[in-house]
Amino acid sequence: GENVEQHPSTLSVQEGDSAVIKCTYSDSASNYFPWYKQELGKGPQLIIDIRSNVGEKKDQRIAVTLNKTAKHFSLHITETQPEDSAVYFCAASWSSGYSTLTFGKGTMLLVSP
Amino acid sequence: GAGVSQTPSNKVTEKGKYVELRCDPISGHTALYWYRQSLGQGPEFLIYFQGTGAADDSGLPNDRFFAVRPEGSVSTLKIQRTERGDSAVYLCASSRAAGELREQYFGPGTRLTVT
Fold this sequence. Notes:
Helix content of chain B: under 10%
Structural class of chain B: mainly beta
Distance between the termini of chain B: 37 Å
Shape of chain B: globular
Number of strands of chain B: 11
Number of helices of chain B: 0
Distance between the termini of chain A: 41 Å
Number of strands of chain A: 11
Radius of gyration of chain A: 14 Å
Helix content of chain A: under 10%
Number of helices of chain A: 0
Largest sheet of chain A: 6 strands, mixed
Strand content of chain A: over 45%
Radius of gyration of chain B: 13 Å
Largest sheet of chain B: 7 strands, mixed
Oligomer: heterodimer
Structural class of chain A: mainly beta
Shape of chain A: globular
């Protein structure tokens, strides 16, 4: 089955800096890669996703890049703010009519004012 | 609009007891997923429903776990003879349909503690 590795496990940045979280996946058939933000005591919130037919997607301060050849994808957050502090999860899935997500172990991002 | 809701938010039970966890998906979403999240880990897939039927239950850890979705909307995850190792946050997610539109939206989860 699919295996997703995520790095780093923790990331501390100063407000205004950029943050990058990286994931690798094992199944070359995977074609959908969402990112979730999870705040303490809450469920994961979808923040951005990318499908295998594109290499990059951007939404305001967040962007995701995908390298299918190397089987890795990354989340980029620019101009970080304290409210970006949370645990971020990457995930991968492939569609055979539905998409069970395989998650990484998460990255705890701490943005200091 | 309303998101995915889960009840109860917290459940404490004694080892050996039976528990039911409820999920109410986003209205109109036909696909429903259950995941389990242990402390410090990402969610792990348990079971997927398309409509009323369990299309994939390969993630259920053993036969003490069972889930139903009798009318294609609300789902209940049932755990028999609970064990301390079952303690985790149980997350439910729904999506509009299988196939191309596959964004999954999660509920807040039910934190299950088995003492």
